[in-house]
Design brief:
Blueprint: E1 12-18, H1 24-32, E2 50-56, E3 60-66, H2 74-87, E4 93-99, H3 106-117, E5 122-127, H4 152-163, E6 170-172, H5 181-194, E7 211-215, H6 229-241, E8 244-248, H7 253-260, E9 266-269, H8 274-280, E10 287-289, H9 290-298, H10 301-307, E11 319-323, H11 335-348, E12 353-357, E13 371-374, H12 382-395, E14 399-401, H13 402-409, H14 413-417
Parallel strand pairs: 1-3, 1-4, 4-5, 5-6, 7-8, 7-9, 9-10, 11-12, 11-13, 13-14
Antiparallel strand pairs: 2-3
């Protein structure tokens, strides 16, 4: 993805689920008009979730996800099924691919139960419709691959018995003949549009013509030649509002504020420079951080604010999970594995143990941890970020994020929340 491309975290995640050889990969290829997924008659060809960012009309920027069969068997098969179910945590729209000849079985029913438990929008497509007789024909015929007689009316009856009552979109399609593929794309688009959010990073806090100063440290951890994703996305949101974005390093902040001639509407800083930026920003200029804005944008700000209070109850030997949504080469003074652990030990005076996880890793069992400290989650979509918050809430483990924790330890949390109209 180029620098001007839509980040994967901001794309609609469309995942295809189903049994082995239901035709998930074939349906994906038909929907996209590309050979994105490997197709084979051999069961279990897709062994790991496959992600592909692309433009899918009429939806727009999407991530298409092909998953392993939910009926896989054996030790490795169980692991593949688990990975398929994990994809649900980041899925915005689920497409359940059912073999129209085989019909609905227990694997599909269990998956639908999971969809509904997660309140995940989904639709059902009966693939291989070309193997069914037209509903106008009543005589039976044998399908040469299974030896089983089927008509479209029989499959429809099975479908209604399995899902009635239900308003979930269902349709017949054939990846071979193209039947129903256009309708499937339209249905996916309709479900995706229904899920669209009017969330803003900062646009609802500012007005056209406002000046917003972004403080972006350039250190060894910053990717060479570009800004990190939260900074890019925040700049875009400011521009869409019709406001003016000014970008500076923390070392030039004083000079920038002097040259403005008028007070900016807001200063937004990278969390690791919070203390210096707060010191150099006059009290009558609102100040917050990218991380705090993203806690509101993608997660549950109230939960992360409540979570930071657990810092005061930390004891010697407590384990703290340091979770990041991306994988990157860690520098010698990495924010998640070096700086925050050092600041927390200094702040609490306790001997604490820190356990880092990154990317798609997030423990199933959170009980060993006294606190979870998460990054801003710019690489995670909203659904996955809220899934992680939900896991912490269900496990009774407090969870906060980098910016909130740093602001709290530096004594500037109250100030950093005022621009969001939150008062402690």
């Amino acid at each position: 993805m180029g620098i001007n491309g839509t980040p994967a975290s901001e794309r609609v995640h469309i995942a295809f689920f189903g049994r082995r050889n239901a035709g998930k990969s074939s349906i994906i290829n038909a929907v996209t008009g590309q050979n994105l997924a490997v197709v084979s008659e051999v069961k279990g060809t897709t062994t790991d979730p496959v992600y592909k960012t692309m433009e899918l009309l009429p939806v727009g920027p999407v991530v298409m996800i092909d998953t392993p069969g939910i009926d896989d068997e054996g030790g490795l098969g169980d692991l593949r099924v688990k990975r398929s179910y994990q994809v649900l945590n980041k899925t915005d729209v689920a497409v359940l691919v059912v073999d129209a000849v085989e019909g609905v079985g227990e694997p599909e029913k269990k998956l639908i139960e999971r969809f509904e438990a997660k309140e995940l929008p989904y639709l059902i497509v009966y693939n291989k419709a070309d193997l069914l007789l037209p509903s106008s024909q009543r005589e039976r015929t044998n399908d040469t691959s299974s030896g089983t007689a089927h008509t479209a009316d029989e499959i429809a009856g099975l479908k209604e018995a399995a899902f009635k009552p239900s308003s979930v979109p269902k349709l017949y399609a054939s990846a071979v003949t193209g039947e129903g593929i256009y309708e499937l794309k339209e249905r996916i688009a309709a479900v995706a549009r229904a899920e669209e959010s009017d969330r803003r990073i900062v646009g609802d806090l500012i007005s056209p013509g406002d000046v917003v100063v972004l403080v972006t440290p350039i250190d060894s951890a910053a990717p060479k030649g570009r800004l990190i994703l939260p900074q890019q996305q925040t700049i875009r949101d400011i521009l869409e509002t019709g406001a003016i974005a000014m970008v500076t390093r923390e070392t030039e902040l004083n000079q920038t504020l002097l040259k403005l001639g008028a007070k900016p509407r807001l200063v937004i800083t990278d969390s690791q420079a919070f203390a210096e930026v707060s010191r150099d920003t006059p009290e009558d200029i609102p100040l917050t951080s990218f991380s705090i804005l993203f806690a509101r944008y993608k997660g549950d700000l109230a939960q992360t604010l409540k979570g930071v209070r657990a810092v005061e109850q930390l004891r010697d030997g407590d384990k703290i999970l340091m979770a990041e949504g991306c994988t990157h080469h860690r520098q010698c003074d990495d924010i998640g594995t070096v700086k925050i652990p050092r600041w927390l030990r200094e702040y609490t005076g306790k001997k604490l143990e820190f356990v880092p996880v990154s990317g798609t890793e997030f423990p199933d069992d959170l009980s060993p941890y006294r606190l979870i400290v998460h990054c801003g989650g710019c690489m995670l979509n909203e659904r996955e970020m809220k899934y992680r918050l939900g896991c912490a809430r269900d496990a009774g483990v407090p969870m906060t994020n980098y910016g909130i924790l740093i602001a709290s330890m530096k004594g500037i949390l109250e100030r950093s929340l005022k621009p969001l109209k939150i008062y402690l």
